[in-house]
């Protein structure tokens, strides 16, 4: 692989959700200019109702949501402090006030208030459907929703794509009474088009998602889900992970994000990037909310909330991936503080490492895997919905015919991915997927075995290629804001003040325990910072 192509494809990994790299000295960098939305948010169904929401009720909801979980919100609605309709209007009001700047949404659900009112009727009749009944949820816009909403993956070519039916996880949300607020922005095609201008979060349909904490990357590709939850533009959201694309934006935006074990959440009806890796999962402000959301969208019969314990780490052996975390020196004070907390919670800390094996290959191997996924998995979805575009080369030509509208942030990554997968037959890609899954599984199991650990500790998405490819669960929890940092290149943006996250990696199928470990750490630290929106 030539050096230029390798550099471009490495930036593609940043668009998926990689950590920033170090530079020399801080420099100011202006926020990216916004493009026009290809579909403006339609306020017609909501405008009059928003104006009728009493200011004192909105203030009451605002005060409660500063720290409340979905469990506490349900208690407040049960006590008559406000209704599900009030709650939906509160979030819609905030979206109307802030989303033109943040661009966390691509489309609103015109039936959101009808869904909220139906929840209120069920509550009045004593027939609630579960812990998310009446709770406002956003959905990453690569998750299919039936009419009237569209499913675009952020791409102009799918602007008018309407799925025949809800994805199974969406059907489960509806069966649980959740209120679907709308579709969240993302990195276009889950990070396969461009890394500019802020490492992910940009689409032709909606523009560049902004980080509510300041001029920092939102990372990719579940940027709208993470930024929207952080800014209280949704109570919870469903994102998706290919390799860091849920964990990284959650960490960068200062919220909780979880990639469940493979197939714990039904991934049918999700626009693919790498089918073998893709996994939908919850994005929330707290571990409790992530657990409640997973309980509704998963395929198991587990009460994750009931399993959350503040003493869950007591006596547990934790393998800390020290060397990889500390390879970025700015992580050192965060790692020291996190390790001290883990020890205070009774965890037995062991140094751990992920040691690659020959079958894993090199960095180029994974980039080839990503490129082939774009050619075969992503494009199969597009080709089935387009008369003129069948191959990745067709898509590049289609975009180039009207670049201002179709690829306002460029398509260098898509071109590089096309070049990186040229000549790779589908059979070779399928064999590579099997090989890399087995290798990633062996690498992780080796770390667990050598340390005797029940859980591994990483930062942000440092080890996402391994856990995402193996299909192992991972969850990130806020570590507060960085007080020491550097310049992220090539952005020339200082990351001082940007949220950071600790990531727990569990064994396959250990999702409930992983949530409990994360909860224990979260409750001992409470380091989530609510952004102040301008």
Brief summary of the model shown:
By secondary structure, this protein is α/β, with parallel strands linked by helices. It has helices at 3-16, 47-52, 55-65, 70-78, 84-102, 112-125, 168-175, 223-230, 247-252, 287-297, 322-326, 332-344, 363-383, 392-400, 403-406, 412-421, 426-451, 464-470, 511-525, and strands at 105-108, 136-140, 179-184, 202-203, 207-208, 236-241, 256-259, 279-284, 317-320, 348-351, 455-459, 474-481, 487-488, 493-494, 499-505.
Overview of the molecule:
This protein has 534 residues and is of the alpha/beta class. The protein folds into 3 domains: 3-13 and 361-426, no CATH class; 50-307, Amidase signature (AS) enzymes; 317-358 and 434-525, no CATH class. Helix content is 40%, strand content 13%. The chain is built from 19 helices and 15 strands. The strands form 3 sheets. An 11-stranded mixed beta sheet has the order 1-3-2-6-8-7-12-15-11-9-10, sandwiched between helices. Strand 13 and strand 14 form a beta hairpin. The longest helix is centred in the C-terminal third of the chain and has 26 residues, at 426-451. The chain is globular. The chain starts with a helix and ends in a 9-residue tail after the last helix. The model is unreliable at 18-32 (pLDDT under 50).
């Amino acid at each position: 692989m030539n050096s230029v192509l390798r550099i471009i494809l490495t930036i593609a990994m940043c668009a998926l959700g990689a950590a920033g790299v170090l530079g020399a000295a801080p420099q100011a960098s202006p926020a990216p200019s916004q493009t026009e939305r290809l579909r403006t948010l339609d306020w017609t169904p909501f405008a009059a109702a928003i104006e009728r929401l009493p200011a004192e009720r909105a203030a009451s909801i605002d005060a409660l949501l500063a720290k409340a979980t979905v469990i506490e919100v349900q208690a407040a609605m049960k006590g008559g402090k406000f209704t599900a309709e009030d709650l939906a209007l509160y979030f819609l009001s905030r979206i109307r006030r802030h989303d033109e700047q943040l661009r966390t949404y691509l489309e609103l659900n015109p039936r959101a208030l009808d869904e909220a009112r139906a929840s209120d009727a069920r509550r009045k009749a004593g027939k609630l459907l579960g812990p998310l009944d009446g709770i406002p949820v956003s959905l990453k816009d690569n998750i299919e929703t039936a009419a009237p909403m569209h499913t675009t993956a952020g791409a102009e070519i799918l602007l008018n794509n309407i799925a025949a039916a809800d994805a199974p996880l969406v059907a489960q949300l509806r069966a649980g009474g959740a209120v679907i607020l709308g579709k969240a922005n993302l990195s276009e095609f889950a990070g396969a088009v461009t890394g500019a201008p802020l490492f992910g979060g940009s689409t032709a349909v909606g523009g560049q998602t902004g980080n509510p904490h300041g001029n920092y990357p939102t990372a990719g590709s579940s940027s709208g889900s993470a930024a929207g939850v952080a800014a209280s533009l949704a109570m919870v959201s469903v994102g998706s992970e290919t390799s860091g694309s849920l964990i990284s934006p959650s960490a960068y935006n200062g919220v909780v994000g979880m990639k469940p074990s493979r197939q714990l959440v039904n991934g049918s009806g999700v626009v693919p990037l790498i089918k073998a890796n893709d996994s939908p999962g919850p994005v929330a402000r707290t571990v409790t909310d992530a657990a409640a959301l997973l309980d509704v969208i998963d395929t198991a019969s587990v009460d994750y909330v009931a399993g959350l314990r503040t003493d869950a780490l007591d006596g547990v052996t934790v393998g800390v991936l020290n060397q990889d975390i500390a390879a970025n020196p700015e992580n050192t004070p965060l790692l020291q503080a996190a390790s001290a907390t883990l020890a205070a919670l009774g965890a037995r800390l062991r140094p751990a490492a992920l040691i690659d094996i020959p079958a894993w290959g090199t960095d180029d191997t994974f980039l080839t895997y990503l490129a082939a996924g774009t050619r075969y998995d992503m494009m199969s979805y597009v080709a089935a919905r387009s008369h003129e575009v069948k191959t990745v080369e067709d898509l590049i030509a289609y975009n180039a015919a009207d670049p201002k509208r179709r690829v306002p942030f460029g398509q260098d990554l898509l071109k590089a991915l096309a070049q990186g997968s040229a000549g790779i037959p589908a059979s070779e890609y399928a064999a590579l997927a099997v090989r890399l899954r087995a290798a990633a599984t062996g690498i992780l199991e080796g770390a667990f075995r050598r340390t005797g650990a029940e859980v591994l500790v990483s930062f942000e998405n440092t080890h996402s290629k391994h856990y995402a490819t193996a299909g192992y669960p991972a969850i990130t929890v806020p570590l507060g804001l960085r007080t020491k940092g550097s310049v992220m290149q090539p952005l020339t943006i200082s990351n001082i003040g940007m949220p950071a996250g600790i990531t727990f990696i569990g064994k396959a199928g250990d999702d409930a325990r992983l949530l409990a470990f994360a909860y224990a750490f979260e409750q001992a630290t409470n380091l989530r910072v609510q952004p102040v929106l301008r």
